[in-house]
Amino acid sequence: MVSHKALTIILLGFLMISCGSTPEEKAKNLKLTTNAKNGSIPLGETLTFSLQNDQNYEISSTSFTLNGQSVEENKPITITKVGNQLLEATVFFGDKSATIKTNVTVLNNEAPKVYKFNILNTYPHDITSYTQGLEFHNGELYESTGQYGESKLRKVDYKTGEVLKNINLDKAYFGEGLTILDNKLYQLTWRRGIGFVYDVNTFEKTGSFKYGKSKEGWGLCNNGKVLYKTDGSEDIWILNPETLTEDDFLQVFTNKSGIGQLNEMEWIHGKIYANIYQRNGVAIINPETGGVEGVIDFTPLKNLVTQHPKLDVLNGIAYNPDTQTIFVTGKNWDKLFEIELVD
Predict the structure, then answer these.
(1) CA 20 to 30 Å from 305, out of 61, 107, 272, 332?
(2) How does pLDDT run across 21-61, given as a tens digit for each residue?
C-alpha cells in the first residue's frame, strides 16, 4: 500500500515531468536569434540566424523557411528586397512538432535623395476632374478620375485641355488608376475589387479582372512587360498582363521605415514614381528591391492653382516620351504642370 507521503511525491514528480512536455510549451522556451539589430537589417547585409535551445530539449530535427522558402541554419542569407521578412523554424520532438516565428525588417541601405523641380510650362486642366490616373500614349494624355457618380475615362489634348474622347463609369464605381500596354487600357476601381480593360483607340470595354490579395485599387503603371498596382498600403503588386493575376509584390521602404498610402504611379527611366496620398510628394522606387531612392516635394504647386472648396491633394504623374518631361496635377486642380527635376 502506497503511503500518503509517497503518493504526494509521485504526483509532484508526474506534474514536473508533464509541465512543458507538449511541443507548443517547449517551443515557448526556444528562440530564433538573428543578427538583425532591433529587428532590422540594411539591404545587402547578410542575415544569419540560429535556434537557441537553453533548456537542452531533445530535438529530432528542425527545418527553417524565410518567407516560405527553405533556408539553412548558420548559413548567411542575402535578402534582395526591402520589407518585412518572416523567418520560421519548424521543430520536431519525435513525431510531433511546433513552429517558432520571428520577423526581420529589411531597410533600404541608403537615404533617399531629395529632389526639387523647375516648372517648364503650365497647361489647363479640368477643375472638375478628381484625378486618379494619368498617362501619355502617342502624344495624347489619358486620364482616369474618381468620385461616385463622377468617375470617367478620357483622352485629352494636354496643351489645350480639350477632351478628345470621354466615357462615364457607372455610378456604382469609383474610378482609380490607369495604364496602357499593347493598345489595351487598364483602369482600376476603388473598393469594388474589379478593374476594366478597354481598347485604347475606341474605349470599347473588352474585359475585366478581379483583384487577388491586394486590398483596393489605387494606382497603375507598367514597364512594357508587367503591370504594377498599388492598393493604398506600402505594397506594390505585380500583375501578369495576360492573366491579370497578382504574381508577386514589392514592399516599399526607405532606410528608416515603410512608405504607406502609395497612390498613382508612373514608370520613368526604369524607376517607379509613386504619389504618396495626402503628402503632396512622390517617391522614386527601385522596382527590383522596393527601396526608395528619391523623394520629390511638390507642396508648392498646390498654391499655384485656383483655390476652391473641392481642391484636394496632388495626384497624377505622367512621363511624356515626346518631350522627355514629367507632368503632374492634382485632384480638382485647374492646372497641369510640366516640370524638370533638380538634384
Answers:
(1) 272
(2) 787 888 888 898 999 999 999 999 999 999 988 888 888 89
Do 158 and 141 contact (CB within 8 A), yes or no?
A: yes
Nearest by Cα to 227 from 206, 248, 254, 205: 248
Cell of 162: 480639350
CA dist 19 to 24, 27, 321, Å? 11, 13, 70
Which of 72-76, 93-97, 302-306 has the largest mean confidence?
A: 302-306
Task: For 103-153, write each residue's pLDDT tens digit.
Answer: 999 999 999 999 999 999 999 999 999 999 999 999 999 999 999 999 999
Tell me, yes or no, whether 249 and 313 share the same domain: yes
| Rounded Cα–Cα distance for residues 68 and 88 (Å) | 8
Residue with cell 527545418: 63
β-partners of residue 205 are 198
Same domain, 160 and 231: yes
- Which domain covers residue 171, as residue numbers? 113-342
Comparing CA positions, the residue from 135, 181, 173, 172 lying closest to residue 154 is 135
Whether residues 82 and 168 share a domain: the answer is no
pTM of the model: 0.90
* Sign of the CA dihedral running 37, 41, 42, 47: positive
Q: Is 52 helix (H, G, I), strand (E, B) or coil?
A: strand
Q: Residue 236 forms beta bridges with which residues?
A: 230, 250
96 and 153, same domain (yes or no): no
